[in-house]
Amino acid sequence: MEDVYIQIRERARQIVATFPAQPFYEDFAEAVEISRNLFETDPVIHRLREVVDKSIEKNNLGHGLDHAVKVTLDAGTLMVIEGGLAGQMEENRKRSVFLAQCAGLLHDIKRTQKGHAEKGADYAREMLGSWQSFNPDEVACIAGAIYNHEAFKEQQPCKSPLGTLISDCLYDADKFRWGPDNFAHTVWDMIEFADIPLSKFVSLFPKGIASLEKIKTSFRTTTGMKYGPQFIDTGLAIGEKLYSAIQKEFAEFLV
Q1: Domain-by-domain residue ranges, the chain?
Q2: Residue 17 burial by CB count (10 A; 0-12/13-18/19+): exposed, middle or buried?
């Protein structure tokens, strides 16, 4: 990454640090802890994370392992919450959280390929179909969620209410990353991967902000529809401050 991008990235992270943590994590601290505990202790999740770590490209268009883990944890948290709202028994909910986390780990496994959601779903279906840890219906739920995780794309109907819930939790957890994470990490990883000139990055910035605005109305779970826009509004505020800072503090590099 060019030195100027490193400087801008650090400026972006300074701006991000001035914003408070998202209310989602405080309001659902218990669900966050349940998701994290399962992620850290479940042997199948551990095995799957190792598979993803070996298979996913280091940068992966800005959607590498770090991104996958964040999505996984939030997908699990959303499933704890939404499973409770749906009236799931605690034991069934634990399994649902597990399945949502599997989808989270695998959702961007084919990120650098065209049609990555569909190809990721095929990959998950083929791989997990050979694992004794999953039955065919569970594999279908995970693959369907991966297929449906892209924004502004037509969804494939899931075959069960559980599949729909996993799909919606994965989508919302992935789109939470369009908030502060976008400017703290994702944008810079994508730039490093694609080697985008600064002038092009700045010219595309307003279009990127417009895309963030559109995502606000796309959340799918009850919890996501309430808290997702807060993530995006924070991302928008950070983006506006960063855009202004780039034009004022890095003007010499824009000539």
Answers
A1: 3-253
A2: exposed
Its sign, for the CA torsion 121, 124, 127, 129, is negative
CA dihedral (181, 187, 188, 192) positive or negative? positive
User: What region, left, alpha or beta, does residue 152 occupy, with left being phi > 0 and alpha being psi -120 to 50 degrees?
Assistant: left
Contact assessment for residue 107 and residue 78, using Cβ atoms and an 8 Å cutoff: no
Residue whose structure tokens are 């996913």:
56
Kindly give, in sequence order, each residue whose CB lies less than 8 Å from that of residue 250, ignoring residues fewer than 6 positions away. 4, 7, 8, 198
Give the pLDDT confidence score for residue 64 in this predicted structure: 83
Whether 189 contacts 90, CB under 8 Å? no
Residue 57's pLDDT band (cuts 50, 70, 90): low
Q: Which tokens belong to 116?
A: 């990555």
CATH 3.40.225 fits 3-253, yes or no: no
Q: Is 97 helix (H, G, I), strand (E, B) or coil?
A: helix
pTM of the predicted model as reported, rounded to 2 decimal places = 0.94
Closest by Cα among 65, 80, 56, 16 to 245? 16
Per residue in 113-138, pLDDT (tens digit) is 899 999 999 999 999 999 999 999 99
